Give the backbone structure.
Amino acid sequence: MFSYVAAKAITLLGERASVFWRIDGVVVQGKDKTMKRIAMIWLSMLVLTTAVLGQYPRPREAYGKASVAQPKGAPSSVDKILDTYVKAVGGRAAIEKVKTRVIIASFVLNDGTLGTLAVYAKAPNKRMAMLSDSDGHLISEYGFDGSVGWDQRSASEGAFYAVSGQLLASMRRDAEFYREINLRVLYPRMTSKGKERIGDHEVYVVEAIPETSPAEELYFDVLTGLLIRRDEQVEFPQGSAELKIYFENYKEVDGIKLPFTITRFGPNGRTLTQISEIKQNVPIDDTKFNQPTQ
């Protein structure tokens, strides 16, 4: 999955930390601390787009590349890996019983910046997120109503704008509510690459290619069947960079296993997200996902 919010990537340059991020193909630059924090928080949102995927080894393992293990028989087919994954999460029936989800979380960035976020999702493909700073002040929000994607540069500016092109395609994938059972749809081309090791975990490696984005690698734990890591390339104004996302601290919510701790390792270091609450099948009006008028 190419995460929509990954397009809001940043690069920190020099002592004053010039901040760049891409918004619908436009590069925006600023030098003050507020702009830096806004951009960094948007990048941290990357981890929540995969809040229903996998678990991860200890953070110390994340700094090294996965090592190739000696083959142990024929590689498992992609279909078998994906079927095992669905069962490990809780099974198709349990997954399809859930119609809405609300996620409340806090996060800390590599430089110590703290923030909170709330994500609202509704089947089949509606999603909305609100980001706030540590004082509870709204920083920004974005959403997808099933067909139209919208975003906000910052709460201080107030202006909302429609998302289009590849960014809209990315947002549409992120909004897919039943990701676990629709990976074949989200990634039309998937190939099993055999087994590797990540720390103490033996994993199946699957190359997954969306229709309009670069290939990703998905690492499924051989023992648990869950996704242990996901790697993707994110385009920056100065080039591309790899992001590695890990998941752990599984808790069962309404018959589905969900990770409550998500860690991202990227060019700006480590971002840790702790989910404090997940509510499912709560009423969410469709208007929640509509683009605000102002």
